[in-house]
Amino acid sequence: MFRSQQIARLLLEKEELDDRLLNADHSEWYFIDRVLSKFQVCYTFLTSLLSMVLTKTSINGVLGRGGMHLFSLSQLQEFLDVSVEWVSHDKKLLDLGAGDGQITAIMAQLYRTVSVTEASKIMEWRLKQRGFKVVPMNMWHLSGTYHLVSALNLLDRHYNPSLLLTQLHSVTLRSESLLLLTVVLP
């Protein structure tokens, strides 16, 4: 097929798709917008009430909000250079400051034993719901050896970042493990 015929065919297909889009029923789009708007109003109202007695992190834990996406399983496998021979049955993961466990759940697909720490008691509850072993925050560096230690977006929130780095160094050196460390940049 000649180049001009290909261009003409593509232009015709685009015209047909544009017509279908213009003639389509958009009521579902607007319905979803209205529902989401109402949900956001409820969330804002509940947040303002709960903020009198709970932290923002705990409020998000109660309401099931505040999750984030950092990487997919395939991105993590590529980043960690996971080979096709990878066997997870003997692998251990420690995720510090695991939050609601959304990112931990992605990492957990590569590890059999998953331990977590979290400052918020409500988030600890969420993590236990997901089946993760919660380690006391002041004991994690004494809790064993791991294949991967993860501290995602924790360094800037820690009360003593220097101590955290020292403990991370000690645990990863003792375990001969990898350290996955991320820092939030403004």
Automatic annotation (TrEMBL):
Domain of life: Eukaryota
Pfam families xref list: DREV
InterPro entries referenced in this protein's UniProt entry, alphabetically: METL9 (IPR007884), SAM-dependent_MTases_sf (IPR029063)
An example molecular function term from Gene Ontology annotations: protein-L-histidine N-pros-methyltransferase activity
Protein name: DREV methyltransferase
Biological source species: Wuchereria bancrofti
